[in-house]
Each structure stands twice: as C-alpha cells, then as structure tokens.
Design goal:
Layout (H helix, E strand, L loop, with lengths): L4 E7 L2 E7 L4 H16 L6 H11 L8
Antiparallel strand pairs: 1-2
Length: 65
C-alpha cells in the first residue's frame, strides 16, 4: 500500500503541512502503464477512484542496489 503522507513545505514563507501520495519514478511509471492498459480494455469509469484504489493495492517500489 502506498500511504497518504504529510510533509512540511515552506509556502510564501510559512511552513504548512501538505498531504499527498509521494511516488517514486518507478511507481509513477507503473501507475501510468496500468492505467493506460485498463483504459484501453474499458475497465476505467472513474479516474480518481481508479488511482485511489491502485495506490491502496500496490506496494512502493524500492530500488535495490
């Protein structure tokens, strides 16, 4: 599962918490490929729901040396 994270960012000189899913390039590549394949096959009816479900079902890809 790729979890929702909170990070502190400096925005206009103020520190603010920003929630988001932080993906590696490999994670993003896999998400895009899966999304394109499922769109082509007609399995995607709601983009946002598809991406949220994908994030819950997949583990973060960790680069192994």
């Amino acid at each position: 599962m790729i979890i929702l994270e909170s990070k502190i960012f400096v925005i206009d000189g103020n520190e603010e918490y920003v929630d988001g899913y932080y993906l590696t390039l490999k994670d993003l590549e896999r998400l895009v490929r899966d999304f394109q394949a499922d769109c082509h096959d007609g399995f995607v009816s709601n983009d946002n729901a598809y991406i949220e479900l994908w994030l819950k079902k997949h583990d973060r890809i960790v680069k192994k040396d």
